């Protein structure tokens, strides 16, 4: 099935560098709640109460518990067909590939993806607010946990809160500048700077494709939008790309 871009097929044949942005929607079929929408993660909490530096200063126990519960829930979920398909693309794609996930779960890695980064942090990591050392973390992370590197009782969830700078922005922007194709999967396009990547990619001449359950806030910026569950759309798209 040829990739149905409004671009000449010859362009697709010479497509080498791909950047893929994923959001909570790619993990939905694994049983991880998305943020916005019925039963969403934010539904039980106001974002301001759990995902800002002010919330952490005001009620550290609530914020640490919010992430402890999500970290523990990782034991109960597994990667779905969409994660598996992207891991296959990572293994078999001869050109450049970068999976930029907004997700803090570890399902891309557990599916086998390697050329990837977490721009909003990771549940299975702890950050020292004193020395900024980051380390793998599996269990609960109570407020006041001591940093093994500097000894300060300053470990916090390694999560990029609203108002904090997302990780590896220079690497992301460099990849977007070289991209022939930008694909967005399972994100509402509600949070910046990730929501602006499609415009940056377009500006640099990349083809743009959105795979989502419903139209996102940024749909108008994509050359093509395909609607449906990621577990169906992503394997079909990877099959087409790998020919
Ligand atoms: C920053 C933490 C600068 C981890 C999160 C420009 C304009 C306007 C505002 C701003 C701007 N620049 C900055 C801002 C402020 C802010 C922002 O964007 N606010 C929004 C609300 C307007 N951005 C920031 O603060 C960012 N920081 O810009 O810093 C700076 C500069 C200098 C110095 C210092 C700082 C930081 C943003 C990161 C915040 N942290 N989370 C966690 O708790 O998990 S954001 C949170 O929302 C998630 O991490 C997630 O990444 C993000 C987006 O959510 P989605 O992944 O899209 O999930 P959502 O539920 O919304 O949507 C799911 C989608 O999937 C839906 O479309 C649905 O239809 C679809 N779907 C569902 N099921 C399926 C499916 N699709 C396919 N298949 C399915 N089965």
Report what the structure shows:
With 243 residues, the protein is α/β, with parallel strands linked by helices. It is built from 10 helices and 9 strands. It has a 6-stranded parallel sheet, sandwiched between helices. Strands 5-4-6 form a 3-stranded antiparallel sheet, with helices on one face. Helix 7 (107-111) links the parallel strand 2 and strand 3 (116-118). The longest helix is centred in the first third of the chain and has 14 residues, at 60-73. The model is unreliable at 1-5 (pLDDT under 50). Ligand BV8 is lined by residues 23-25, 28-29, 34-37, 40, 51, 102, 104, 120-121, 159-166, 186-188, 190-193, 212-214, 216, 229-230.
Tags for this model:
binds ligand BV8, alpha/beta, disordered N terminus, globular, 18% strand, 3-stranded antiparallel beta sheet, 243 residues, 6-stranded parallel beta sheet, 10 helices
Physical arrangement of strands within the biggest beta sheet: 3-2-1-7-8-9
pLDDT < 50 runs, ≥5 residues? 1-5
For the biggest sheet, the summary is: 6 strands, parallel
The overall pLDDT, averaged over residues, is 92
Structural class: alpha/beta
Associated small molecules: ligand BV8
Fraction of helical residues:
25-40%
In short:
The chain has 243 residues and is of the alpha/beta class. 33% of the residues lie in helices and 18% in strands.
């Amino acid at each position: 099935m040829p990739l149905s871009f409004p671009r000449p097929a010859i362009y697709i044949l010479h497509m080498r560098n791909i950047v893929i942005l994923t959001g909570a929607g790619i993990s939905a079929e694994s049983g991880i709640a998305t943020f916005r929408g019925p039963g969403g993660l934010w539904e039980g909490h106001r974002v301001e109460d759990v995902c800002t530096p002010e919330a952490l200063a005001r009620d550290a126990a609530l914020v640490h518990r919010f992430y402890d519960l999500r970290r523990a829930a990782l034991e109960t979920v597994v990667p779905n067909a969409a994660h598996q398909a992207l891991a296959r693309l990572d293994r078999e794609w001869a050109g450049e590939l970068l999976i930029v996930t907004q997700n803090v779960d570890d399902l891309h890695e557990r599916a086998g993806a390697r050329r990837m980064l977490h721009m909003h942090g990771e549940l299975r990591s702890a950050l020292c607010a004193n020395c900024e050392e980051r380390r793998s973390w599996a269990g609960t992370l109570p407020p006041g946990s001591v940093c093994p590197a500097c000894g300060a009782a300053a470990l916090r969830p390694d999560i990029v809160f609203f108002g904090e700078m997302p990780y590896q922005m220079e690497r992301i922007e460099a990849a977007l500048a070289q991209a022939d194709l930008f694909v967005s999967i399972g994100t509402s396009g509600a949070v910046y700077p990730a929501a602006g990547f499609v415009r940056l990619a377009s500006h640099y001449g990349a083809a743009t494709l959105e795979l989502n359950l419903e139209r996102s806030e940024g749909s108008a910026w994509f050359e093509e939008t395909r609607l449906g569950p990621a577990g169906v759309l992503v394997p079909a798209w990877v099959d087409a790309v790998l020919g």
